[in-house]
Amino acid sequence: MSPTSATATPAPARRRSANRVPFLAYVLLSLMVLVSVFPLYWMFVVSTSDSATATTLPPHLVPGGNFPHLAGLVFDTVPFVQALLNSLVVAGTVGLGQALLCALAGFAFAKLSFAGRNTLFLIVVLTMTVPAQLAVIPQYLIMSKLGWVDTLQAVTVPGVVSAFGIFWMRQHIANTIGDELMHAARVDGATTWQIFWRIAFPLVRPAAFVLGLFGFVYTWNDFLWPFIVLKSPERYTVQIAIKALQSNRAIDLGLAMSGSFLATLPLLVLFVFVGRRLVQGIMEGAFKG
């Protein structure tokens, strides 16, 4: 028997060693999923019970049967259906605007030559270092001058373009669209807009879809700016409607959790339908860099 064969690891042992790592990885991933999902489940448990459930030790982990009553109170207390529609319009417009406008700006920074291109792009990147809270006062003054205070335009227009979105699409387009393709399109007589709409945008559509979805979710969950600029209940977004469920002196946790769960349901439904495309777009952008 040769020394090599004597020291070789038996095939069954190698198979057991190869199977052990994926099993541990699945266990770790399962624990991470449980940790991530538990707050959502706990919110649902409280929304089906009452405020006492949230403070009971040991905590109750079984949903109750009080959700229809609390959900009815949510719709009776605030115009929640109108708030859901307002959030859908605002978040949908912002998501679509970011997917298109940020892709267009990213295309210009990545593939067009014009004076001050690098300087302007540097300014765009530097704006990402400024906290959003610092822009609240000047942004409110602008909305006031335009007469947009207490309108949905005030919470829609500032979000249709973002510095992160421009940076995201610029990097993706620079790594995806070759200069040879641009030159070939110009030789065929295509204009700049035709090159973007017919060639560049279809190639980067997965990245634009991911960006638009991020913009939709961020706008749907945004609280600070809508809370400042919206005054009328019929113009509330869903997060402001949840805040309106709370009184000044006490918080009904069951009622608040019911509203929060109702506000989260559209995002869960959205993720069920587009989750695969979301992961695909993120992975495609990760590997093309």
Describe this protein's structure.
With 289 residues, the protein is an all-alpha fold. It folds into 2 domains: 11-55; 79-288, MetI-like fold (Orthogonal Bundle). The protein is built from 15 helices and no strands. Helix 4 (67-77) packs across helix 15 (253-288), helix 5 runs antiparallel to helix 12 (205-221) and helix 6 crosses helix 9. The longest helix is centred in the first third of the chain and has 37 residues, at 11-47. It is globular and about 70 Å long. The two termini are 51 Å apart. The mean pLDDT is 86.
Question: Helix and strand layout, with pairings?
Answer:
Layout: H1 3-7, H2 11-47, H3 51-55, H4 67-77, H5 80-111, H6 117-127, H7 136-146, H8 153-156, H9 163-176, H10 179-187, H11 192-203, H12 205-221, H13 224-229, H14 238-244, H15 253-288
Helix pairs in contact: 2-15, 4-15, 5-9, 5-12, 5-14, 6-9, 12-15, 14-15
Membrane topology: Multi-pass membrane protein
Pfam families: BPD_transp_1 (PF00528)
Family: Belongs to the binding-protein-dependent transport system permease family.
